[in-house]
Specification:
The chain is α+β, with helices and mostly antiparallel strands. The protein has helices spanning about 25-45, 50-65, 115-120, 155-170, 235-250, 320-335, 350-360, and strands at about 1-10, 80, 125, 130, 145-150, 185, 200, 215-220, 220, 225, 290-295, 300-310, 365-370. A hairpin with a 7-residue loop joins strand 11 and strand 12 (about 300-310).
Protein backbone atom coordinates (compact mmCIF):
# COMPACT_ATOMS: atom_id res chain seq x y z
CA UNK A 1 0.00 0.00 0.00
CA UNK A 2 0.99 3.61 -0.58
CA UNK A 3 0.50 6.18 2.18
CA UNK A 4 -0.36 9.71 1.08
CA UNK A 5 0.12 12.46 3.68
CA UNK A 6 -1.32 15.97 3.61
CA UNK A 7 -1.62 18.93 5.92
CA UNK A 8 -5.24 20.08 6.12
CA UNK A 9 -5.61 23.77 6.91
CA UNK A 10 -8.98 25.48 7.17
CA UNK A 11 -9.54 28.81 5.43
CA UNK A 12 -13.05 29.39 6.80
CA UNK A 13 -14.66 28.07 10.00
CA UNK A 14 -15.94 24.49 9.71
CA UNK A 15 -19.17 23.39 11.34
CA UNK A 16 -18.09 19.82 11.94
CA UNK A 17 -20.13 18.01 14.55
CA UNK A 18 -20.04 14.88 16.66
CA UNK A 19 -22.83 13.37 18.75
CA UNK A 20 -22.35 16.07 21.39
CA UNK A 21 -22.53 18.92 18.81
CA UNK A 22 -18.87 19.64 19.41
CA UNK A 23 -16.96 20.78 16.34
CA UNK A 24 -14.27 18.14 16.34
CA UNK A 25 -11.64 16.87 13.92
CA UNK A 26 -12.92 13.51 12.61
CA UNK A 27 -12.14 11.37 9.57
CA UNK A 28 -15.74 10.53 8.44
CA UNK A 29 -16.40 13.96 6.81
CA UNK A 30 -13.16 13.72 4.84
CA UNK A 31 -13.86 10.15 3.77
CA UNK A 32 -17.37 11.10 2.64
CA UNK A 33 -15.96 14.01 0.63
CA UNK A 34 -13.29 11.79 -0.91
CA UNK A 35 -16.02 9.37 -2.04
CA UNK A 36 -18.03 12.20 -3.60
CA UNK A 37 -15.10 13.44 -5.68
CA UNK A 38 -14.04 9.86 -6.46
CA UNK A 39 -17.42 9.47 -8.23
CA UNK A 40 -16.71 12.60 -10.26
CA UNK A 41 -13.26 11.26 -11.21
CA UNK A 42 -14.85 7.89 -12.08
CA UNK A 43 -17.41 9.59 -14.32
CA UNK A 44 -14.70 11.57 -16.12
CA UNK A 45 -12.61 8.42 -16.61
CA UNK A 46 -15.64 6.86 -18.34
CA UNK A 47 -16.30 9.95 -20.47
CA UNK A 48 -19.49 10.48 -18.41
CA UNK A 49 -21.02 7.32 -19.89
CA UNK A 50 -21.61 5.72 -16.50
CA UNK A 51 -23.60 2.69 -15.44
CA UNK A 52 -24.53 3.74 -11.91
CA UNK A 53 -24.82 0.14 -10.65
CA UNK A 54 -21.32 -0.64 -11.89
CA UNK A 55 -19.98 2.53 -10.30
CA UNK A 56 -21.64 1.82 -6.95
CA UNK A 57 -20.24 -1.70 -6.96
CA UNK A 58 -16.70 -0.47 -7.61
CA UNK A 59 -17.12 2.22 -4.98
CA UNK A 60 -18.39 -0.32 -2.47
CA UNK A 61 -15.48 -2.67 -3.11
CA UNK A 62 -13.02 0.20 -2.59
CA UNK A 63 -14.55 2.15 0.30
CA UNK A 64 -16.35 -0.72 2.04
CA UNK A 65 -19.96 -1.82 1.89
CA UNK A 66 -22.72 -3.79 3.58
CA UNK A 67 -24.98 -4.15 0.55
CA UNK A 68 -23.11 -6.26 -2.01
CA UNK A 69 -24.50 -9.69 -1.21
CA UNK A 70 -21.58 -11.51 -2.79
CA UNK A 71 -18.81 -9.27 -1.45
CA UNK A 72 -19.28 -7.50 1.90
CA UNK A 73 -16.02 -5.92 2.92
CA UNK A 74 -14.22 -3.29 4.94
CA UNK A 75 -12.80 -0.23 3.27
CA UNK A 76 -9.55 -0.63 1.35
CA UNK A 77 -8.92 3.08 1.92
CA UNK A 78 -7.60 3.87 5.40
CA UNK A 79 -7.74 7.43 6.73
CA UNK A 80 -6.08 8.76 9.85
CA UNK A 81 -5.87 12.21 11.44
CA UNK A 82 -3.10 13.06 13.87
CA UNK A 83 -5.59 14.97 16.05
CA UNK A 84 -9.17 14.32 17.11
CA UNK A 85 -9.65 17.27 19.45
CA UNK A 86 -12.43 19.87 19.34
CA UNK A 87 -12.09 23.09 17.40
CA UNK A 88 -10.95 26.19 19.23
CA UNK A 89 -13.63 28.68 18.12
CA UNK A 90 -16.21 29.02 20.93
CA UNK A 91 -17.85 32.38 20.21
CA UNK A 92 -18.82 34.44 17.15
CA UNK A 93 -18.41 37.74 18.98
CA UNK A 94 -16.70 40.32 16.79
CA UNK A 95 -16.69 38.17 13.64
CA UNK A 96 -19.92 39.15 11.90
CA UNK A 97 -19.71 41.92 9.33
CA UNK A 98 -22.06 44.83 8.72
CA UNK A 99 -25.51 43.78 7.61
CA UNK A 100 -26.51 43.22 3.99
CA UNK A 101 -29.71 44.03 2.16
CA UNK A 102 -32.21 41.22 1.72
CA UNK A 103 -35.09 42.46 -0.46
CA UNK A 104 -37.60 40.06 1.07
CA UNK A 105 -37.07 41.19 4.67
CA UNK A 106 -39.89 43.62 5.32
CA UNK A 107 -39.21 44.49 8.95
CA UNK A 108 -37.00 47.59 9.07
CA UNK A 109 -35.83 46.67 12.57
CA UNK A 110 -34.41 43.33 11.39
CA UNK A 111 -31.03 43.30 9.71
CA UNK A 112 -29.45 40.37 7.89
CA UNK A 113 -25.97 39.38 9.00
CA UNK A 114 -24.09 37.87 6.03
CA UNK A 115 -22.48 35.13 8.13
CA UNK A 116 -25.83 34.24 9.67
CA UNK A 117 -27.41 34.14 6.22
CA UNK A 118 -24.81 31.74 4.81
CA UNK A 119 -24.56 29.73 8.04
CA UNK A 120 -28.23 29.48 8.99
CA UNK A 121 -28.55 26.60 11.42
CA UNK A 122 -25.11 26.45 13.04
CA UNK A 123 -25.32 30.23 13.32
CA UNK A 124 -28.25 32.09 14.91
CA UNK A 125 -28.89 35.56 13.50
CA UNK A 126 -31.51 36.69 16.02
CA UNK A 127 -30.29 39.67 18.01
CA UNK A 128 -26.84 39.60 16.43
CA UNK A 129 -25.01 36.64 14.94
CA UNK A 130 -23.95 33.99 17.44
CA UNK A 131 -23.36 30.26 17.58
CA UNK A 132 -26.50 28.18 17.86
CA UNK A 133 -27.00 27.23 21.49
CA UNK A 134 -26.47 23.57 20.58
CA UNK A 135 -23.12 24.26 18.88
CA UNK A 136 -20.38 24.22 21.49
CA UNK A 137 -17.25 24.64 19.40
CA UNK A 138 -16.27 25.20 15.77
CA UNK A 139 -13.06 24.29 13.94
CA UNK A 140 -11.43 27.67 13.42
CA UNK A 141 -9.62 29.34 10.55
CA UNK A 142 -5.96 28.37 10.49
CA UNK A 143 -6.37 25.12 12.41
CA UNK A 144 -4.30 22.31 10.91
CA UNK A 145 -4.04 18.55 11.11
CA UNK A 146 -2.15 15.84 9.25
CA UNK A 147 -4.33 13.56 7.14
CA UNK A 148 -2.81 10.21 6.13
CA UNK A 149 -4.46 8.00 3.51
CA UNK A 150 -3.30 4.44 2.90
CA UNK A 151 -4.42 2.90 -0.38
CA UNK A 152 -3.49 0.02 -2.66
CA UNK A 153 -1.25 1.20 -5.50
CA UNK A 154 -3.75 0.19 -8.19
CA UNK A 155 -6.32 2.64 -6.80
CA UNK A 156 -3.86 5.47 -6.23
CA UNK A 157 -4.15 7.44 -9.48
CA UNK A 158 -7.92 7.97 -9.35
CA UNK A 159 -7.87 8.69 -5.63
CA UNK A 160 -5.14 11.28 -6.13
CA UNK A 161 -7.26 12.97 -8.80
CA UNK A 162 -10.16 12.97 -6.33
CA UNK A 163 -7.88 14.54 -3.71
CA UNK A 164 -6.90 17.25 -6.20
CA UNK A 165 -10.59 17.98 -6.75
CA UNK A 166 -11.14 18.05 -2.97
CA UNK A 167 -8.38 20.61 -2.60
CA UNK A 168 -9.72 22.78 -5.46
CA UNK A 169 -13.46 22.50 -4.80
CA UNK A 170 -14.09 20.57 -1.60
CA UNK A 171 -15.64 21.82 1.65
CA UNK A 172 -16.79 19.91 4.74
CA UNK A 173 -19.32 20.32 7.52
CA UNK A 174 -22.61 22.13 7.93
CA UNK A 175 -23.52 24.72 5.25
CA UNK A 176 -20.37 23.76 3.37
CA UNK A 177 -21.94 24.49 -0.03
CA UNK A 178 -21.96 28.13 1.03
CA UNK A 179 -18.19 28.15 1.53
CA UNK A 180 -17.95 27.19 5.21
CA UNK A 181 -15.42 24.46 5.91
CA UNK A 182 -13.16 25.47 3.01
CA UNK A 183 -9.69 23.97 3.37
CA UNK A 184 -6.47 23.39 1.49
CA UNK A 185 -4.39 20.20 1.22
CA UNK A 186 -0.60 20.49 1.22
CA UNK A 187 1.41 17.31 0.49
CA UNK A 188 4.00 16.37 3.15
CA UNK A 189 6.49 13.59 3.88
CA UNK A 190 7.41 13.08 0.24
CA UNK A 191 3.84 12.80 -1.08
CA UNK A 192 3.74 14.05 -4.66
CA UNK A 193 2.17 17.35 -5.60
CA UNK A 194 -1.56 17.25 -6.30
CA UNK A 195 -2.58 17.53 -9.93
CA UNK A 196 -5.49 16.85 -12.24
CA UNK A 197 -7.91 18.17 -14.82
CA UNK A 198 -11.33 19.71 -14.33
CA UNK A 199 -14.10 17.23 -15.25
CA UNK A 200 -16.08 19.43 -17.62
CA UNK A 201 -19.32 18.68 -19.44
CA UNK A 202 -21.78 20.87 -21.34
CA UNK A 203 -24.15 21.98 -18.60
CA UNK A 204 -27.44 21.13 -20.30
CA UNK A 205 -26.17 17.62 -21.03
CA UNK A 206 -25.50 17.24 -17.30
CA UNK A 207 -29.26 17.35 -16.76
CA UNK A 208 -29.53 13.81 -18.15
CA UNK A 209 -28.86 12.37 -14.68
CA UNK A 210 -29.72 13.19 -11.08
CA UNK A 211 -26.34 13.18 -9.35
CA UNK A 212 -23.36 15.59 -9.46
CA UNK A 213 -20.79 14.15 -11.83
CA UNK A 214 -19.09 17.11 -13.55
CA UNK A 215 -18.57 20.84 -13.48
CA UNK A 216 -20.66 22.44 -16.18
CA UNK A 217 -19.43 24.50 -19.09
CA UNK A 218 -21.02 26.65 -21.77
CA UNK A 219 -19.80 28.40 -24.91
CA UNK A 220 -17.67 30.73 -22.75
CA UNK A 221 -15.91 27.95 -20.88
CA UNK A 222 -16.17 26.37 -17.40
CA UNK A 223 -19.00 27.60 -15.21
CA UNK A 224 -16.51 28.83 -12.60
CA UNK A 225 -16.30 32.39 -11.30
CA UNK A 226 -13.85 33.95 -8.86
CA UNK A 227 -14.02 37.02 -6.63
CA UNK A 228 -11.36 39.66 -6.24
CA UNK A 229 -8.76 39.00 -3.50
CA UNK A 230 -9.92 39.75 0.05
CA UNK A 231 -7.78 40.41 3.09
CA UNK A 232 -9.67 38.04 5.37
CA UNK A 233 -12.41 35.41 5.37
CA UNK A 234 -14.90 37.55 7.32
CA UNK A 235 -15.23 40.16 4.57
CA UNK A 236 -15.09 37.54 1.83
CA UNK A 237 -18.03 35.66 3.32
CA UNK A 238 -20.00 38.94 3.23
CA UNK A 239 -19.26 39.22 -0.50
CA UNK A 240 -20.43 35.65 -1.04
CA UNK A 241 -23.62 36.40 0.92
CA UNK A 242 -24.39 39.37 -1.35
CA UNK A 243 -23.93 37.11 -4.39
CA UNK A 244 -26.09 34.35 -2.90
CA UNK A 245 -28.89 36.75 -2.00
CA UNK A 246 -28.83 38.21 -5.50
CA UNK A 247 -28.87 34.85 -7.25
CA UNK A 248 -31.79 33.58 -5.17
CA UNK A 249 -33.99 36.63 -4.80
CA UNK A 250 -33.78 37.68 -8.45
CA UNK A 251 -36.68 35.21 -8.75
CA UNK A 252 -39.73 36.87 -7.21
CA UNK A 253 -42.43 34.62 -5.83
CA UNK A 254 -45.95 34.97 -7.16
CA UNK A 255 -49.15 34.31 -5.25
CA UNK A 256 -48.28 30.67 -4.76
CA UNK A 257 -49.89 27.64 -6.27
CA UNK A 258 -49.70 23.88 -6.64
CA UNK A 259 -46.72 23.91 -9.01
CA UNK A 260 -43.09 24.89 -8.37
CA UNK A 261 -41.99 28.44 -9.15
CA UNK A 262 -38.56 29.22 -10.66
CA UNK A 263 -36.93 29.86 -7.27
CA UNK A 264 -37.86 26.36 -6.07
CA UNK A 265 -35.63 24.77 -8.71
CA UNK A 266 -32.54 26.38 -7.17
CA UNK A 267 -32.91 24.65 -3.81
CA UNK A 268 -35.68 23.51 -1.51
CA UNK A 269 -37.28 24.05 0.99
CA UNK A 270 -37.81 27.80 0.88
CA UNK A 271 -39.12 29.47 4.05
CA UNK A 272 -42.84 30.27 3.81
CA UNK A 273 -43.02 29.07 0.20
CA UNK A 274 -43.72 25.32 0.23
CA UNK A 275 -44.67 23.26 -2.80
CA UNK A 276 -47.64 21.17 -1.74
CA UNK A 277 -46.93 18.28 -4.11
CA UNK A 278 -43.35 17.95 -2.79
CA UNK A 279 -44.41 17.43 0.81
CA UNK A 280 -42.76 18.56 4.04
CA UNK A 281 -39.63 16.42 3.96
CA UNK A 282 -38.35 17.03 0.41
CA UNK A 283 -34.80 18.37 0.21
CA UNK A 284 -33.17 19.74 -2.94
CA UNK A 285 -29.59 20.95 -2.41
CA UNK A 286 -28.29 23.82 -4.49
CA UNK A 287 -26.03 22.63 -7.31
CA UNK A 288 -24.19 25.97 -7.32
CA UNK A 289 -21.40 25.79 -4.75
CA UNK A 290 -18.98 28.18 -3.06
CA UNK A 291 -15.36 27.53 -2.10
CA UNK A 292 -12.71 29.76 -0.52
CA UNK A 293 -9.09 29.45 -1.69
CA UNK A 294 -5.79 31.17 -1.03
CA UNK A 295 -4.89 33.61 -3.77
CA UNK A 296 -2.29 32.03 -6.07
CA UNK A 297 -0.29 35.26 -6.30
CA UNK A 298 -0.57 36.35 -2.67
CA UNK A 299 -1.22 33.45 -0.25
CA UNK A 300 -2.10 35.93 2.51
CA UNK A 301 -5.24 36.90 0.60
CA UNK A 302 -8.34 34.83 -0.14
CA UNK A 303 -10.67 34.48 -3.12
CA UNK A 304 -14.15 33.08 -3.32
CA UNK A 305 -14.89 30.54 -6.07
CA UNK A 306 -18.41 29.92 -7.38
CA UNK A 307 -18.91 26.85 -9.54
CA UNK A 308 -21.88 24.94 -10.93
CA UNK A 309 -22.27 21.16 -10.89
CA UNK A 310 -25.60 20.86 -12.73
CA UNK A 311 -27.79 17.79 -12.50
CA UNK A 312 -31.50 17.03 -12.66
CA UNK A 313 -33.49 16.88 -9.39
CA UNK A 314 -34.61 13.35 -8.41
CA UNK A 315 -37.73 11.96 -10.06
CA UNK A 316 -39.77 12.54 -6.89
CA UNK A 317 -39.68 16.26 -7.73
CA UNK A 318 -41.18 15.62 -11.18
CA UNK A 319 -38.53 17.91 -12.68
CA UNK A 320 -39.46 20.23 -15.52
CA UNK A 321 -36.26 20.26 -17.55
CA UNK A 322 -37.23 23.30 -19.64
CA UNK A 323 -38.06 25.38 -16.55
CA UNK A 324 -34.85 24.29 -14.84
CA UNK A 325 -32.75 25.30 -17.84
CA UNK A 326 -34.34 28.77 -17.86
CA UNK A 327 -33.63 29.25 -14.16
CA UNK A 328 -29.96 28.34 -14.51
CA UNK A 329 -29.57 30.51 -17.62
CA UNK A 330 -30.61 33.47 -15.46
CA UNK A 331 -28.19 32.47 -12.69
CA UNK A 332 -25.29 32.16 -15.14
CA UNK A 333 -26.26 35.47 -16.75
CA UNK A 334 -26.20 37.31 -13.42
CA UNK A 335 -22.79 35.85 -12.53
CA UNK A 336 -21.50 36.90 -15.96
CA UNK A 337 -22.91 40.39 -15.43
CA UNK A 338 -20.87 40.65 -12.23
CA UNK A 339 -17.76 40.16 -14.41
CA UNK A 340 -18.39 43.43 -16.24
CA UNK A 341 -16.86 46.62 -14.88
CA UNK A 342 -19.48 49.12 -16.04
CA UNK A 343 -22.91 49.49 -17.59
CA UNK A 344 -24.56 46.72 -15.61
CA UNK A 345 -28.24 46.58 -16.49
CA UNK A 346 -29.16 43.35 -14.63
CA UNK A 347 -31.74 42.67 -17.32
CA UNK A 348 -32.01 39.03 -16.21
CA UNK A 349 -33.82 40.28 -13.09
CA UNK A 350 -37.29 40.60 -14.59
CA UNK A 351 -38.95 42.45 -11.70
CA UNK A 352 -37.91 46.14 -11.79
CA UNK A 353 -38.53 46.72 -8.07
CA UNK A 354 -36.42 43.72 -7.14
CA UNK A 355 -33.71 44.86 -9.56
CA UNK A 356 -33.59 48.29 -7.93
CA UNK A 357 -33.24 46.77 -4.47
CA UNK A 358 -30.44 44.36 -5.42
CA UNK A 359 -28.41 46.67 -7.65
CA UNK A 360 -26.63 48.85 -5.04
CA UNK A 361 -24.94 45.93 -3.29
CA UNK A 362 -24.36 43.86 -6.42
CA UNK A 363 -22.56 46.83 -7.97
CA UNK A 364 -19.86 46.47 -5.30
CA UNK A 365 -19.13 42.86 -6.33
CA UNK A 366 -16.58 42.10 -9.04
CA UNK A 367 -16.07 38.60 -10.43
CA UNK A 368 -13.77 37.03 -13.02
CA UNK A 369 -14.81 34.14 -15.23
CA UNK A 370 -12.15 31.48 -14.76
CA UNK A 371 -10.44 29.49 -17.51
CA UNK A 372 -9.00 26.69 -15.40
Amino acid sequence: MTTLTYTVRFLTPAFLGDAEQTGRWRTPPFKALLRQWWRVAYAADHNFNVNVNDMRREEGLLFGNAWLEDDFRKSLVRLRLDRWGPGNLKSWNGLEQSTVTHPEVQRTSYKVGPHAYLGYGPLDGRGGTKLNEKVKTVVNVGECATLSIAVLDEHGPRLQRALWLMDRYGTVGGRSRNGWGSFMLTPTDGTQKLGGHIPLREWKQCLDRDWPHAIGQDEKGPLIWQTEPHDDWKVLMKTLAIIKIGLRTQFVFGDGGPTPEPRHWLSYPVTKHPVKSWGDTARLPNSLRFKVRSDEHDPKKLRGVIFHMPHLPPSAFQPNKGAIEEVWKNVHALLNELCTSSGRAYSMIADQTRRDKLKPELDHVSLVRMRE
